[in-house]
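TASK: fixed-backbone design
INPUT:
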């Protein structure tokens, strides 16, 4: 089979690999769709040491084969996947930090994990990492369960309170989904902050109360909403260094910021402004299987709208050029899905 992998800065390769077969505790998933994540593009632009198993992690497919010890899913089940539960044996698990289990993280994104992600026709992984997808969710929509779970986890990690004025910075897929989850969690007003006019329209169409450009328009809007107090909380979903300080500046004294977008570049901040405002800072990445199940149910019952975020479906042959187009901003798609069996 062919597998698409980001192998270095500005480097994408289609590599020939053997079709996988399951070990006793594994499943082999026939991938139907896999979304291109912002982190895939960041890895391509910034040259991350990007584990093969992470390259193409927004996948959905059918269990094609199950190992002899697998009990949680059956062949033919439609599934998606995430980080495994804690192993119960490592140092983190023994100290009641199972959400940071080093064994699970190693299997997800380290040297012991799968040799490719979902940019391939088949993926072998531990069965404990997958969950069945509810019947009522369209397969293309199911490919967005994974990024929606990132948003779900971020809101849970944050200090959001019912009735808060919330700024969501960056209206890519994670930002648009975080805005929806924040609204479902009780946010009073959600302000989408995005320089692109088309994405601001999409933010309004998917449930944000207000959508504004950063800068003067944002400051004027917050002044009108809060009489100069500013937002209670900001979710920084942009994944660029510049917005870290901007997110702090748009919240009130005693407010909070949750960093969701990912970049490996260094950011310049003003510690005095952070300290003088007594800002609380949280960070968020990945999610649990339990959170993934809850997110799937939110898509199923309509609390999360993911269909408007989908732009196109491409094949593996177009994947490298598409990642480069996204990196160079030749196209402004929100979410492009890959069908690794097409072509």
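OUTPUT:
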């Amino acid at each position: 089979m062919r597998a698409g992998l980001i192998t270095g800065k500005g480097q994408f390769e289609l590599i020939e690999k053997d079709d996988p077969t399951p070990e006793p505790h594994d499943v082999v998933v026939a991938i139907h769709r896999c979304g291109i994540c912002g982190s895939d593009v960041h890895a391509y632009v910034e040259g991350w040491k990007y584990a093969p198993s992470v390259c193409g992690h927004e996948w959905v497919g059918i269990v094609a084969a199950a190992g002899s010890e697998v009990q949680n899913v059956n062949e033919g089940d439609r599934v998606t996947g995430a980080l495994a539960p804690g192993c119960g044996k490592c140092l983190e698990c023994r100290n009641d930090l199972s959400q940071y289990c080093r064994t699970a993280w190693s299997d997800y994104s380290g040297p012991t994990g799968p040799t490719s992600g979902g940019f391939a026709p088949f993926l072998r992984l531990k069965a404990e990492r997958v969950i069945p997808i509810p019947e009522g969710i369209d397969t293309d929509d199911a490919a967005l369960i994974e990024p929606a779970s990132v948003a779900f986890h971020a809101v849970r990690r944050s200090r959001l309170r019912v009735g808060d004025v919330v700024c969501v910075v960056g209206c890519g897929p994670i930002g648009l989904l975080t805005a929806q989850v924040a609204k479902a969690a009780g946010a009073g007003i959600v302000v989408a902050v995005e320089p692109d006019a088309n994405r601001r329209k999409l933010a309004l169409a998917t449930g944000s109360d207000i959508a504004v450009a950063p800068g003067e328009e944002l400051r004027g809007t917050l002044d009108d909403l809060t009489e100069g107090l500013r937002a209670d909380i900001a979710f920084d979903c942009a994944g660029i260094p510049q917005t870290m300080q901007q997110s702090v500046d748009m919240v009130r004294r005693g407010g909070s910021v949750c960093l969701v977008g990912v970049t490996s570049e260094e950011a310049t901040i003003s510690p005095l402004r952070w300290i003088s405002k007594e800002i609380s800072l949280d960070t968020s990445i990945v999610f649990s299987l339990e959170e993934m199940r809850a997110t799937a149910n939110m898509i199923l019952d309509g609390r999360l709208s993911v269909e408007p975020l989908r732009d196109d479906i491409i094949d593996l042959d177009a994947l490298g050029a598409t990642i480069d187009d996204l990196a160079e901003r030749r196209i402004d798609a929100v979410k492009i899905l890959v069908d690794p069996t097409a072509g």
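COMMENT: The chain is about 30% helix and 25% strand.
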